[in-house]
Amino acid sequence: MRTETLRVFLQSLILEAVPSAYYEEAPDSSVFPYAVWQIDWTYTTDARADGILEVNLWDRSKSGSQIDTLADKLSAILDRLSSLEGCFHISIHNMRRQSVSDPNQELRRRRLQFSVFYSEGG
Fold it and tell me: Measured in whole angstroms, how far is the alpha carbon of residue 100 from the centre of its chain?
């Protein structure tokens, strides 16, 4: 699997919807709104992998409208995406969208999960 190439590709897609995106963990200095994402592989072989892409959107706001707009935009970009990127093919489909509460009433969070099917050519 070409992990770094895949990370760069996914990061670029997420950044089309959200001003800042971080793989696995956001720094303390992150400016809202932002996304933290990771991918968990559920099945892998030398040339194929299936997994779940989880994107957590964060915003500091009394209203959920901005974060819902970002979630809508990200879903529109990723859902039913099928792309051949030179060395690999990737297909992404929407699975779940959740509103996650936080003890800090000013923080808004949305968790989006997508199924990912990845394969390598030649």
Answer: 16
> Using H for helix, E for strand and C for coil, what is the string for the chain?
CCHHHHHHHHHHHHHCCCCCEEECCCCCCCCCCEEEEEEEEEEECCCEEEEEEEEEEEEECCCCHHHHHHHHHHHHHHCCEEEEECCEEEEEEEEEEEEECCCCCCEEEEEEEEEEEEEECC
Q: Which amino acid is at 41?
A: W
pTM: 0.93
pLDDT tens by residue, 54-96: 999 999 998 889 999 999 999 999 999 999 877 889 999 999 9
* Rg of the chain (C-alpha set): 15
More confident residue, 110 or 85: 110
Distances, alpha carbon 73 to alpha carbons 33, 66, 85, 112, in Å: 13, 11, 22, 12
Other beta carbons less than 10 A from residue 5's beta carbon: 13
